[in-house]
Amino acid sequence: MDIKIFANKPEIITLKSGLNVHLIHEKTKVNYAQIDIPFGSFNLNYEVDGEVYDITPGLAHFMEHQMFQMKEGDAFKKLSNLGVSANALTTYRQTSYTLNGSYNFIEALLYLIEVVETPYFTKTSIENEKKIIKEEIMMYEDDKDTITHQKLYEMMLFVHPMLHDILGNVENIQKITKEELDRVYEHFYKSKQRQLIILGDLDFELLKSKLYELDYVTKDVTVKTITFKEPNQVKQTEDQIFIDVTMPSLLMGIKYNLSRTDEFSLFKTEMSILFLMQMLFGNQSSFAEEMVKVGLINDGFNMNVTMEDETMIFVIDNQTEDPKLLAQKMLKYYFEDGLDALTNKTFNTLKRAYLGSYIMALDDIENRIFLYGKYHLAGLSLEDAILYLNNFELDDILSIYHAIKMEFISKLYVYPKS
Length: 418
Fold this sequence. Notes:
Blueprint: E1 11-14, E2 20-25, E3 31-37, E4 45-48, E5 51-54, H1 59-66, E6 69-70, E7 73-74, H2 75-81, E8 85-90, E9 95-101, H3 105-117, H4 123-141, H5 144-156, H6 170-175, H7 178-188, E10 195-200, H8 204-213, E11 224-225, E12 238-243, E13 249-257, H9 263-281, H10 286-293, E14 302-308, E15 311-319, H11 323-337, H12 344-361, H13 365-377, H14 382-391, H15 394-403, E16 409-416
Parallel strand pairs: 2-10, 12-16
Antiparallel strand pairs: 1-2, 3-9, 3-10, 4-5, 4-11, 6-7, 8-9, 13-15, 13-16, 14-15
Helix pairs in contact: 9-15
């Protein structure tokens, strides 16, 4: 299958500030832009010129909010007055600032670049932001899924940054200072890896001339991220929690460490575990059908995977009247009978369905730009990802199936307080 990510090949230029700009011409009514900074909540320890620094958990997300504070006021307000829509997103690996609109787009884009290139951190704005973030954190602290997933992560991880929520916690946020924001900004927001992706039906020659006129200052700083080796086994194999829910549930987590951290290996491992667990426990699996039939579950399992650095966390959960019995049956099936479900026929059916849904997801332009930027930052193209899916084989699934051991698994039983 010949898949074109964009109608025209991206043109990549580099500005005086070191910002890498990807120019993509598409016949669209709406224009899009995304600035990607290689700094996310995963970055908690790093080294510059032999000196080691710590970052307060939650600071990446906090800085994302603070970047929109300008001398003239709230940048969101000015962008909205120009008739464009602006947003921002912090993940484990990056912070992205996005823009879309049809009118005054180039003017809005130049202002967004100014927002990211000229930080305006004041003690007053920082203290005000702490109150806002505190309310956001407290809202999530009451969320049942947040409570249970955070508990499961604490059971599985020893030192990995995934122990910390992207938002941080209230205690973390109170520690953030202007001095730390200034330092982290200079070390990460001026990275040579940062990129700007622009897609739309624009006068790109005019745009390039305006971009080349920009004269923001950058520093040649080499940042070395420090990672701590996460043990292969989980910290705690099982526990229980009583919270305000109407029905018991089971959360089961699998931790898997890779020996390599290149993006292709991470992508391959993430796809392999998703395919494996769908073949074993997906809605169409014989196991799920049997569990529904005997009344242990009412519908399909929820699944999600997080792959950061060398460590992968896969979580599968479902409501059930007997969490411990369901866990026993799932583990017995995985380690004793699951191999019989890993057939070429099932694999090929799932592969076609997944590849189709992956390609359909690219129909959303903003999603396509985000994935394009995400993979490019990590040194893997979006075309490479689709090519790998095309070449994906059952042996990839079997490899990770045999690699998973009982000591890699944590089980959390969730019960109503009553």
